[in-house]
Write a structure and sequence with these properties.
The protein is mostly beta strands. The protein has one helix and 15 strands, in the order ββββββββαβββββββ.
């Protein structure tokens, strides 16, 4: 996914997933600034079985399947000569549904860290961000300080440059989960401030507002999630 180097961002994520009564397969459509970003395909039991990116047949897609306790992820990429998506590589996560014991890669898949969304948890990587902060910073009364790290590529916060260095952080949690992640750091010689707020309704996340800013520029983006049969 392309990373933007703008120095002030305002990103609104809004989605409401009223899927408890689904009786047939359905999909969750993620759009950003009215452009299709990804489509998640679910069975009636809310198990994700496929995902496609972008709004073109030339974009990548994935399928997810379960074999006993193993998860199989297959990737499909666009072949210009055949003018269609063809099987790329695959990844088998051994004992994924109990305690992961091995990862077997076949071919040359691009999506190494993609696994199914469960319980509509589109913020799984946000929780992983919190763990990375704890591992790399010193806890204080105000949050975390003494940080000097960059997030791994698979965990870079949305719209934050991959090479950004984190210097301090704050994490707030409530009864429903994460309420706020705040990061301070530097990128390309400039200091930035990153803030991500989470909003819930009956324990289900409904909105995420993220802002990143410094003194150089301002841009805004809006991401939404919608359910369709």
């Amino acid at each position: 996914m392309e990373r933007r180097n703008n120095l002030y961002f305002f990103i609104v994520f809004f989605f409401y997933l009223g899927c408890k009564s689904q009786k047939q397969d359905y999909k969750v459509i993620h759009t950003g600034n009215k452009e299709l970003q990804a489509t998640y395909y679910f069975h009636p039991d809310h198990t994700e079985y496929a995902r496609s990116y972008g709004n073109s047949v030339q974009n990548d897609s994935l399928t997810f399947s379960r074999d006993k306790n193993n998860l199989m992820v297959k990737e499909f990429n666009y072949d210009g000569k055949q003018k269609k998506r063809t099987a790329g590589g695959s990844i088998q996560y051994v004992d994924y549904y109990t305690k992961l014991s091995d990862i077997i890669v076949s071919g040359n898949p691009l999506s190494i860290d993609e696994v199914p969304v469960t319980n509509f948890n589109f913020t799984k990587k946000d929780a992983e961000m919190e763990d990375i902060i704890k591992e790399n910073c010193k806890p204080t009364k105000e949050g975390y300080s003494g940080c000097d790290f960059s997030f791994p590529k698979s965990n870079v916060p949305p719209y934050l440059p991959e090479s950004a260095t984190i210097t301090s952080a704050q994490v707030k949690k409530g009864k429903d989960g994460l309420e706020e992640i705040e990061l301070q750091g530097k990128y390309d010689g400039k200091m930035f401030h990153y803030k991500r707020n989470y909003y819930y309704d009956n324990k289900r996340i409904t909105k995420i507002i993220t802002s990143v800013k410094d003194n150089s520029s301002a841009d805004s983006y809006e991401d939404t999630y919608s359910v369709k049969n």
